Fold this sequence. Notes:
It contains six helices and no strands. It is an all-alpha fold. The chain has a domain at 4-71: lambda repressor-like DNA-binding domains (434 Repressor (Amino-terminal Domain), Orthogonal Bundle), CATH 1.10.260.40. The chain is elongated.
Amino acid sequence: MSSYQVQTTLKRLGHDIRVARKKRRMSVAEFCERLGVTDKTLAKLETGDGGVRLETLAMALMVLGELHRLGEMLDPAKDDTGLLLDQARLPERIANRRKPSTAPKDRSDEIDDDGSAF
């Protein structure tokens, strides 16, 4: 069982794969050969059947020159929900853990090659 949203998304993905194949002027037979699947499996993929193996999807993306999209799908740097959750977990305040110095040092003559001083 899957939700309506999942079914709709899979159908759109299948349609997009079909369009991409046609734009590249690949016949069903040629695409199947390159994927290593039967025409029945390709038909399932292109109609958005949820029972198609993930490896078949990955192979289709590779043949279409778009495999990188699968690898970037949940990139942590682009995960808006994850980033918002991280931000919500930030402490409101950070305690000063440095021990106070007994004698102040004159650092006006020191050179900061790292550029880390303020």
